[in-house]
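Hi Q.,

Before the meeting this afternoon, I wanted you to have the LCLJCK34 prediction in hand. No need to reply - just skim if you have a minute. The sequence and ligand are here:
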Amino acid sequence: MPKPSLDLTLYLVTNSELLPAGRTLVQHVEEAIRGGVTIVQLREKTMATRAFISLGRELHNVTQKYGVPLLINDRIDVALAVGCEGVHIGWEDAEYADARRLLGNDKIIGVSVSNNDQAEEAAATGCDYIGVGPVFATSTKPNHNPALGTPGLRNLLEFISTLPGPTGNWGLKVPSVAIGGINLDNVQRVMYQSESLGRKKSLSGVAVVSAIIASLTPEDVCKSFVKLLEYCENPVFAPWQLQIANASDFNDLFKKIATKVATKKPIVHHVTNNVVKNFSANVTLAVGASPIMSEDLSELPELAAFNGAMVLNMGTSTKAQQGFLLAAAKASNAAGNPVVFDPVGAGATSLRRESTALIVGNAYCDIIKGNESEIRTVLGDDVIQQRGVDSTSTTDDPLEKARLVKQLARRERNIIVMTGKVDYVSDGESTFELSDGHEIQGGVTGTGCSLGSIIAAYVSIHRECKLVAVLAAISAYNAAAREAAEGVKILGPGAWMTAFLDRLYELRTADKVEEETWVRKLGERVKLVDV
Ligand SMILES: Cc1ncc(COP(=O)(O)OP(=O)(O)O)c(N)n1
Ligand SMILES: Cc1nc(C(=O)O)sc1CCOP(=O)(O)O
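Predicted structure with the ligand bound:
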């Protein structure tokens, strides 16, 4: 019999002690499989051998019905008795060579990896897959190894990718699943932030215990996991070159996104500062999206269920709001909605530095948008002491600015937008310079913040390449700003503001955009920077 095919996308690891009262493990696992679980591991640390085998057989009847492989944790004897598809072993269990000899070549054997040493030993075995973790601390496994965090996970995966193993490229190819503390609101962060640049090595999926086993609705939870994991297949690094096949497509694609926003009317939930609420709502409406402002914890899940996007702007937030900002980001993460984080004044005070670190360290921000000081602060540049919310620019060197955004995007595995006279945008691989706005924008409060609104609207309807959506949003915004400035008789901020909203409104209508040329070709207003 050939080895069963291995799909690690959503790997359910059991622990019947965590089941809600009145539910059986077999019933629970069956519902989880209906929700999209692709592989099951029976992990019962305290069950007597006879009961373990009996439960394994019962569970195997169910997993076989759905064509999903069943593995047994630690116990080769139980796997042999059940006749299931394989085992998962750690470093206190049977040695890989013994497990392979006893089980034969047709069975799946997975091995745990928590650090580089274990990775090297796992590589020497040439095992079928590896479980890498714990990503986060978890009470499901007492005395677990130190949590890796997403940067540690990424480093470990990068190291694994270099290990030749028995096949010469084992490390690059071996399917890898992350485990430990993974739930709906952090799964996308785990997937995105663990990915090596250029997608050289990505996770094959996630292994989950408590978020599924302790749930009252395992089928729904698994469906949500599957949806979020599908979003991750549109990687941060989706090649924009594929979307913009030639120069003339560039403009067409941007226009298509603008008209799609107006057709789909995505909800943009703003948690934003008091100064710009009104202007941001008007900008959002002008581009055809639907703004909502809410700062109540109880509304977060319902608003996230609209599948729009979130603008998280730290402008006038307080210490008391810190928890809410994080909860808002996490609610969006759990629904797979893009988050645009604007760390306004991040370098101005310790409260803002703390809030920034809290959000960036504990949630996934698809886009971080800020001026140079803010971007430097997110990067961890202690030298920056921002005065108010204005940028204390420390460099006039465009290449240095481009390098900054690229560096942060590479670290966060997201899109970074650095605003200024010239805007810089990077996904960590490609970096762009956009110099097509108008200087009067700097004289109207809220123009920086409401750029976040249009970015959120565009990204929410063009998730297949967030970088292109961001470039399109900035180009539309700047086109409207420029044309409004050119069109008004007396160029003052008041007249410009009205004309600007009108231009944004016009740009969203199909017949109007047909006449416009925002960016004729790459290199004209949107330039690729070689850094
Ligand atoms: C998919 C997956 N990865 C890692 C583990 C941990 O296994 P192990 O190191 O054997 O620890 P215990 O599970 O036995 O506590 C796993 N079970 N599954
Ligand atoms: C079984 C297991 N192994 C881990 C490892 O790091 O090897 S962490 C873990 C428990 C994962 O449970 P939860 O999804 O409830 O956090």
